[in-house]
Amino acid sequence: MEETQRIAIGALATHTGANIETIRYYERVGLLPAPARSSGGYRLYGTNHLKRLNFIRRARVLGFSLAEVRKLLTLADQRRRPCAEVRAVAAAHLEDVKGKIADLKAMERVLADTIARCEAGSGSHCPMIDALYTASSPSRWRRLAR
Amino acid sequence: MEETQRIAIGALATHTGANIETIRYYERVGLLPAPARSSGGYRLYGTNHLKRLNFIRRARVLGFSLAEVRKLLTLADQRRRPCAEVRAVAAAHLEDVKGKIADLKAMERVLADTIARCEAGSGSHCPMIDALYTASSPSRWRRLAR
DNA sequence: GCTTGAGTCTGGAGTTACTACAGACTCTAC
DNA sequence: GTAGAGTCTGTAGTAACTCCAGACTCAAGC
Fold it and tell me: How far is CA B109 from CA B105, B106, B119, in A?
């Protein structure tokens, strides 16, 4: 319960793998509570900060935006954990991720195709450049990319 | 060869689907050459601008960064088109896209798993929050996410 | 007690690729 | 000549950091 160890920002950074500047940034934007300070003004972090920062980093690795992380942290902070709400945030994010995968796969296909044509090209002109300069409208390309 | 029609920025925006502000932005950062001006200072675009802007938009749809688009445009501008260099830019970008797809798929898996556990959960605590608060280090999560 | 070097502090600017104003001016049609 | 739509410039905001300068603090060694 009580927090005895207090570590400086550099140590927290090493323990979590986060950047020092990022830690200060998270404090500035209110994701990480302001820690205690030494007499000289150094930030002194306890285990709660360590846990919270790890939470943030794990959520970020999973692609949650800081706004989503904020929401998740708020939900996590409530002692009675509203699992349904957490699930809703995660599910919305999952849909987002799926959409991005679909978009990237479409891009991958077009890129791979064009590069392949490039490789087979005779050399007088570049199929990649041609494809980009071609008169078909970007909206058609966007359709293609879904 | 000669350009007779000259259209205002709004018309160019409608023709390409680009935003007016974006067109001015592309000019500011040097992707689109500064067009002629009317006596009152309005920008007047010709067909070359139209083609170039479409090129940029198609490349952006395929996920090329503006830096990459710049490189592609430079290569396209050379009369003798260095197909190999174009292919290199595109291939590098394709690798990037593939990497992002892999990352997102890993995210998708972890998210879907955790949400599934969430659905099956008894209700006393949230598996999603637990997973994020779990003591395993973010670097392990990152490994997981490849 | 003093010095040294590493660590930390704040505030501000830079990054990417736009987007969104405000307030002034221009163009076209009636 | 005037109304209303279009355009102009310049600045600031967005996400999520990252980097920097110049000042200060801390711990260790002598």
Answer: 6, 5, 15
